[in-house]
Amino acid sequence: MHFENQPHIPPATPGGSTASFTSLDIPHRVKKNRGNYNCGRCGLPKKGHVCHLPPTSTTTTTPTQTPTDSSVSVSNSTSRPPPRQQYSNLRRALSFDDSDLRCDSPEVEIDESEMDLFGSGCGKLPVSCMWEILRRLPPAGLLAAGSVCKGWRETSRRLWRAAEELRLRVPPRSQPGFVGSVLQKCPGLSRLNLRLESDLDSTMFACIAFSCPNLEVVEISTSETAVNRITGDELGRFVADKRCLTSLKMEGCSNLGGFVLCSSSLSTLWLSDLYCLSKMVFNCPNLKEISLDFSRQENDSTDLIAMVDGLGRSCPRLQNVHVASVRLSHAAVLALTAANLRGLRMLSLVLGTEITDASVVAISQSYSKLELLDLSGSSISDSGIGMICNVFPGTLSRLLLALCPNITSSGIQFATAQLPLLELMDCGMTICDLSSQYPTSDESGDFELQTTFKNKLHLIYQKVIIKHSRLKKLSLWGCSGLDALYLNCPELIDLNLNSCKNLHPERVLLQCPSLESVHASGCHNLLIEGIQSQVNTQLHSSLFFSLSCCTRLGGFLIFE
């Protein structure tokens, strides 16, 4: 669904090539010699010449052979990637993103009258064969192929016209004209994904709007060096002009200032890095999914209470709501519950330290059919978990409570025991080792601090016992105060134990025959060996261990 922020890394492009928008910088063409007047065998002029040399194997013309004629020198001068033979599933035409290698290709019909043979410049390949070859090229190769000969130009033109989805990486210092020249080749484009390494300004935004009148899905992501300069007025005009737009996802929205979005077709809206918004007006009656990720700066002046109140009045069909902000409070939760969103199924309110057990009461009274609840970073306690279990036992399948310091192992065990449909649970950084937060009296010389530490020793070295028949993913990352773990979960496939540095190998028992991967960064080698030994004994196969850094399961996971 991974706004985390989804937590997976796409594979590298096969053959070591990078499918990127830098392909639009077409290299300088090699000068073509017009006319082949010399014999290809002996080099003598062809006029009145009968060659006495026998034909070589390189001059035979077969449908699958690469032409050796000098007329294809432009194509050879470009950096074409090696053939991707190890992938059996074809990608959609012009879908060059590495993470989309398994997309189905579009079904474009070719008339029987077009199934002829091209001239010698194309090696006499049928149209269908040429189509299958050119469709696998990145933008650079496809643009260069169109300049080889008439047959290749026609096939590449038809490929551009048939494209429905385009994924491009815009490199630094690129010109908006390059983006427009590619987009204008795709009149039927409905899905656009841009990965920007250069700044996004009004000129490039207008170029996208003008070149793609029928866009349905737009995703714009920015690198750390890129700046999104789009204002709220420009965003509002873009949404209003796109009558077919159903999904808009944009990163780096720190310069919006405020916006008014009016659309009868928009159903999905993701905006991240929001900051100091003076107004937020949503006039989207068919909006079903919204994700608003605000800046982590304390001086953010956005009025979340007014924003949530407006959402309830103008977007009655909302089903998935995700808001991440340090300014989330109990008053904002009350405004959301007063909106009476009857279709709400997934609610994520992240980083709101002022969200308490009273907020859980308000949520449970207004929305009793939630399937996902994410209150990570809040101040709820085990009592709040008890209320969640009392209200949602028949619907809740995903519960995320990471970074909630008031939760103990008792609350975690109670949730897994009372929620029979639970499939995912994230309790990262809930059971922490307080000894790392309180220095000793020898270091600080503060007797009162030492007394406080001793009074909190009962929270250290807790154990978790979970028996669940449907739980598939469990995350306990950062639970440094956990020293014993007993799991009896036959459906568990993913276990995150990153930074559980005090977990003892002899106090870990896993009865999880379906376990596929364990994340154990920052854990002792003895613990890793003990877990691997237990699981291998059950599965009689090797277990995948991930020693990479932990990524929280919350955030945009609700929209997977």
TrEMBL record:
Residues 124-161 form the F-box domain. Residues 1-22, 53-87 are annotated as: Disordered. Signal peptide: none annotated. Gene3D superfamilies: 1.20.1280.50, Ribonuclease Inhibitor (3.80.10.10). It holds the Pfam family F-box-like. GO terms for cellular component: cytoplasm. InterPro entries: F-box-like_dom_sf, F-box_dom, F-box_LRR-repeat, LRR_dom_sf. Residues 54-79 have a biased composition (Low complexity). This is F-box domain-containing protein. It comes from Populus deltoides.
